[in-house]
Design goal:
It is built from twelve helices and twelve strands. The chain is of the alpha/beta class. The strands form two sheets. The chain has an eight-stranded parallel barrel with strand order 1-2-3-5-8-9-10-12, surrounded by eight helices. The protein has a two-stranded antiparallel sheet with strand order 6-7. α6 links the parallel β8 and β9. It is globular.
Length: 366
């Protein structure tokens, strides 16, 4: 199993002091965290797209390109790309550029996005939410398959066989479909032959695995290959040397994040009781000691059968030093324990990528 880290690039106010880092420093903090993620032996690093003062990482590709120059092994991904308000051609070009600079380590998680600030920013109407995503996903996959695409839709200018450079050097870019808890989205991933990426944000982490069951059932009926039927899950969380200390330290940051997001999206932030339930053994929040986190990931794998687990920790003004120490523990303490139970991932990913390209068909110039 692969283990990794996702970030938003947190520039939130510290819940105790009110201090915050600049948006520029938040971006530099991402770069530092990503380089450390490789150094401590983890497998994957993802950047979530937002356009807010708290989360200024609005453009994952240039940050990942900077990380590519300082790393040699780790996979570099969006988590997610809000595709409905972006141009699929530019998304492909940017990540193919990251792929070139990283020698084949770029990935895309394409999703609708749970936040909506990009819609007014780029002049899109929320009532077109579903159409924008469906059409742009179709175009992204078409451009990924072939360097010349003929495409007509309602959400952007048509393509009439124009060439889209640069082409990914080792075949198609890995594209995962990011989904929430909606069953139809899981079925869509299967219908498109795409691996599924989902997040566990609240509730019971084991009951929600019904989403993966539905996805695999649909994929089986469609005859999808194992490479097309992979699952990754991401969870909020935090790792510290001591479990109780981890839960106490991360609570105000979690609450701060949920309060700010709740004000933006119109819900009330969960209280301490909900947080304690979330950090319990069956909850969705991976907060604890390395031993506790490893045990919970292994249990999740037994139910979800996922090939990649990532943890998202930079919430609510968490200091960079605390974040970096947690990444260090995830790599040096949690990963060896998980590998001992589940097995180490293919470090190159080459076999998986080649199999996925074969399953999708060979790109051509027509």
């Amino acid at each position: 199993m692969e283990l990794g880290v996702a970030v938003f690039g947190d520039a939130s106010a510290h819940p105790g002091t009110g201090e915050r880092v600049s948006e520029a420093q938040a971006i530099r903090n991402i770069e530092e965290a990503a380089v450390l993620t490789e150094q401590v032996g983890l497998d994957w690093f993802g950047i979530g797209e937002h356009h807010t003062p708290e989360f200024p990482a609005s453009a994952a590709a240039p940050i990942l390109a900077a990380v590519a120059a300082q790393t040699s092994r780790i996979k570099l991904s969006s988590a997610v790309t809000v595709l409905g308000t972006d141009d699929p051609v530019r998304v492909y070009e940017q990540f193919a550029t990251v792929d070139a600079l990283s020698n084949g380590r770029a990935e895309i998680i394409a999703g609708r996005g749970s936040s909506i600030e990009s819609f007014p920013l780029f002049g899109y109407a929320l009532e077109d939410y579903d159409t924008l995503f469906a059409e742009k996903l179709e175009l992204l996959l078409a451009v990924n398959r072939s360097p010349r695409v003929t495409w007509h839709g309602t959400t952007r200018a048509a393509l009439n066989g124009e060439y889209v450079p640069p082409r990914a050097e080792h075949g198609q870019l890995p594209v995962w479909l990011g989904v929430g808890g909606t069953p139809s989205s899981a079925v869509r991933a299967a219908e498109l032959g795409l691996p599924l990426a989902t997040g566990l944000l609240a509730g019971n982490a084991f009951r929600s695995a019904a989403l993966a069951d539905l996805y695999r059932a649909a994929a089986g009926q469609l005859g999808n290959t194992p490479e097309q039927t992979r699952v990754m899950i991401g969870t909020p969380g935090f790792v510290a040397d001591d479990g109780d200390a981890a839960r106490e330290l991360w609570w105000p940051h979690y609450h701060q994040f949920m309060r700010v997001v709740g004000e933006q999206r119109g819900f009330r932030a969960p209280g301490r009781e909900a947080y304690d339930a979330g950090t319990a053994p069956d909850g969705a929040l991976l907060v604890g000691s390395p031993e506790e986190i490893a045990e919970r990931i292994v249990r999740l794998h037994e139910r979800w059968g996922h090939v990649r687990q990532f943890v998202h920790m930079d919430w609510g003004g968490l200091s960079q030093s605390e974040h970096l120490h947690a990444i260090e523990l995830l790599g040096t303490k949690v990963k060896p324990l998980v590998d001992a139970e589940i097995g180490e991932p293919d470090p190159s990913g080459t076999a998986t990528r080649e199999a996925a390209v074969q399953a999708a068909g060979t790109p051509d110039d027509e």
